[in-house]
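ZP: hey, is the beta-D-glucopyranose complex queued? I don't see it on the tracker
AM: it wasn't, my bad. submitting now with these inputs:
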Amino acid sequence: MKNSYLDVNPWKIIEKGFNPNRVKSSESIFSLGNGAMGQRANFEEYYSGNTFQGSYIGGVYYPDKTRVGWWKNGYPDYFAKVLNAPSWIGIHLEINKVPLDLNTCKQVNGFFRELDMKTGIYTRFFEAQITDDCRIEVMAKRFLSMDEGALGVIHYSVKALKGACEISIDSFVDGHITNQDSNWDDPFWEHQQKTVSNEFIALHSKTLKTEFEVCTFAQTNLINRNEIISSNFKTKEKAWRLSQCSSISLAEGEKLTLLKFGGYINGMNHSPSQFNTKALAVINHAKEKGFDKLIADQKASWAKVWKQSDIVIKGDDKAQQAIRFNIFQLNQTYNGKDARLNIGPKGFTGEKYGGSTYWDTEAYCLPFYMATKNQDIARNLLKYRYEHLDKAIENAKKLGFYNGAALYPMVTMNGEECHNEWEITFEEIHRNGAIAFAIFNYERFTGDTSYIPEMGLEVLIAIARFWTQRVHYSDFRKAYVILGVTGPNEYENNVNNNWYTNYLAKWCLNYAKEQVLHVAVTNPKRFEEVKSKINWKEDEANEWEAIAALMYFPKHPTEDLFLQQDGFLDKELFPTTKISKQERPINQYWSWDRILRSPYIKQADVLQGFYFFEDQFDIKSLERHFDFYEPFTVHESSLSPCVHSILASKLDKMELAYSFYLQTSRLDLDDYNNEVEEGLHITSMAGTWMSIVEGFGGVRVKNNELHINPKLPEQWKEYSFKINFRGTLIKVQKTKGGTKIKHDNIELNVFCEDKII
Ligand code: BGC
């Protein structure tokens, strides 16, 4: 286990002491978000050291022109990039004419920062020696309002600890921003208009090409004893950097406090002609409430979140802190209020993966949102894909598919494919199956039978049509095969008959047929509508069934095992224990060629299928496959350990389940892969949650009944978690003595394979 520089605390992330080498990592870890916007934990004051400045707005992206070595037909023209947006947090100070800069100031003492996950409030404190006879103390609190998506709040105090201070304040909005992740260093924004008044500053900007319009606003107030005493600042502008400025003298012992409101009015929700009016309304509303009430509201909003989703672990503070960190970050990233938004693998904490949507959402994130939120939130995640169905059909058409077959993109912002590595873009087609599986999973968990007739059926049909055209009949095998694919294991490409992909295809075909028949009977009117919309042929579903029945699956010649793909046994099958520690992770030390020829599995592949479809295999079969594939799995995707943890729990391999749990849950806090400075692994955080609820907790829904089969890792005294099952909040508490289940007064079918105490 790696050790972190952060304190272990059940509700807080705490860093003590200032270390410039940790600034970028902490900027990721202490990130803030509220579903509508997010920002890395950059300092408000100027910092000349190593930093990664990042502010992001949900749904605002730029189609960055594709860059590849050799163009392949079918590649998309662009890779969507989440955009580093103008920043509103800057408060630069000069103290006795010396800029406050933690990188250059004479001494920094008592540096401390804390992210309180219970309330979403980020606090930072330090003392800085500015000159020999001047020392100050700074206390900054910041949060992004969970109630008002457009609003962020900074409460920033400076105290003259030693000597008098002449402080000049420059509180600004800055439009001079660039993306770290950019293919050609093109400009992404065009600024259109500025408002610089004593009252507030606002920058109206537009993204190039996509033409998203955004207003970045800020207002700075001087406060005394919680009363705003002045909002009347001087103004300054330097190109697209707009400032509110003031100068203040502090005698030794005196303190100055600024209250800054800032954020974004997003053209996706408001007409640009209303930007300033809306920004002022947000500011005035915040001002009327005042800082204390804003804090109280923020605490109340987070209390609601925790009431539905907290997991309590007794006897293991590291595990406790980790799961809360994961739940906290997921809630900062997506709140389901807007079905146009989704969950990027790095959320609002970095730029890798372009902030776009991957199969991660359906395969990993959906279960978290289904069980910890109200049903409509998870439904919005499915609706997102329904809204993109036309684009998925267009995407498949570009690749030569026809008749309404849909291939959902591997990576997308607006439904168009924007990934451009052939082995992923064209070959990682299993993502289509995860989208169909999510529809099944949603209905199974929520019992909401309206989604499929309203939207899901069209998606399922279009996906079934894709598989029908992507398979072909092999005369040699007398079965349907799927050639040239990449499974979830991206460490082998262009393989034939990846078991997971074939299995998913078969399942999709059967499930689509089942749903067609079901809707035809239960909702004939809607079925007629769908049929006329999609050029339905009466024998289509029979063709799906016929293909599914004859799907080919590679098998081990002598053992009772499915093979990951046709050529798996041709590899030199050395377990991962044969790789020296210095060569891990192999993706950083080995050539790609060597990786491709190796037996090493980046992430759960066959086992991902056993996870999705566990009821279709007996426990012995699961054990055989787990024991066969786990020794080859290097878990170099953050999405991998959680699946292995869930399966290990099911197999009663609790030590293993626990060590996978720690690996997934503390991936960022302990920086397992030495890359946390790039941002957090948001989508895999949902996998962490699954490791507890589905893994240790054994939660399943079968035939409309909730099944719970909790197991306790030895390292824990007890744990409890909550799930919102069909509108009823259920608390499951597992102790060494047994299991306690609490719920509201509604009678429920809960099957617990344990003693109820
Ligand atoms: C994984 C993919 C995943 C992507 C984004 C890759 O490393 O192999 O399965 O979708 O990261 O999280």
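AM: back. The chain is about 35% helix and 25% strand.
ZP: great, adding it to the tracker
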